[in-house]
# Entry
Amino acid sequence: MHLTMIGAGYVGLVSGACLADFGHDVICVDNNPDRIALLNQGKSPIYEPGLDALLESNRKAGRLRFTSDLAAAVAEADAVFLAVGTPSRRGDGHADLSFVRQAVREVAAAMKGFTVIVTKSTVPVGTGDEVEAIVRSVRPEADFAVVSNPEFLREGSAIEDFKRPNRIVIGSEDERASEVMGGIYRPLSLNQLPILYTGRRTAELIKYASNAFLAAKITFINEMADLCEAAGADIQDLARGIGLDQRIGSKFLHPGPGYGGSCFPKDTLALIRTAEEFGVASSVVTTVADSNARRKRTMARRVINALGGSAMGKHVAVLGLTFKPNTDDMRESPALDIIDGLQAAGATVAAFDPVGMDAARPLLDDVRFATDAYDCAAGADALLIVTEWDAFRALNLDRLRNALRQPLVVDFRNVYSPAEMVEHGFAYHSVGRPAALPAPRLASVATA
# Structure
């Protein structure tokens, strides 16, 4: 099939590359000429494991093209995917649909013959109706259908998620459009994955409900971690104990400094605003969003307490800046709140991230960006592990201790075991587990 992807950002690039790899003829459109030029050189503007190779192989095979000419790309398309940004609108938290509306107007003017317009962007319930109305206003005679096809891609494993999804959701009110969508995803039928056909409004809500539920699991386990610390229990054993219950499951039960990224903060807030518009209570989701925001703000206080109650004049090393590993995405990263809080308390900060340094630099002032973990730790009074990159899971602990001015580690991701850290001479603070302190050294007694 001939497919056009409007938006060459994270969702558009991954989706376009994977659909081209299925054998479809895909054109990715973006109004940023620098981005298009970069892509036509075989380079990806974003970091996602495996994406560079996928883009290049399909570009060379002629199945994947990049252009800023929307009209030409849409004219030859059987289906046009809308993968433009829907950020939170300043002031009220509603999803900003201005990019969607503009794209739809341009698509409407350019499409020829029966065309399926697919909303891949995360949009509030009822957006499909609005898209349909816009097209009708621009082209009353047009032959088209609007479908909701939400994405469920995790940054860092997006290609695997697209090619081996646990479900595909297609929200359609048109039988012809459903057939087109079935043809697009037919290459996945060998995996016998479930394709869920629903109404368009239901599909739009599924994405928001999924992300809100996962955010709730994260928030719940973070609150249980606080309770474990107060009660002298171990959050990792607790998480395993409840996660073995198949009704609950073990995923997203890992405590930390709070969720971030491009989806959970934005989508929970948008769902809350949507519920308000329909006059429906959303107390659970509201509490989740409030609890997570509060948690990220209080993480710096944990470090200050570990430093003895004051960070004034202290030097702190931060390992991990992105909101999760295997991405360069800094959006809503807990590291931003933690570093801001430490600097406000008088600390100086050094930081290192394997991939996210370039994205972090414009967002952080007065931070020394280190060349590796040990350079970051040099002369620090405390080392923080904020993002659980693989590169931080097997550090040379003796070298790390020697680099630090004080052997203090605050591990927000529970990467290490308390016993191991104490054995190497660290004072070790983690999440949902008792602090582990090295045994005091006994003074030697002179004998007569």
Notes: The CA atoms of residues 401 and 407 lie 5 Å apart.
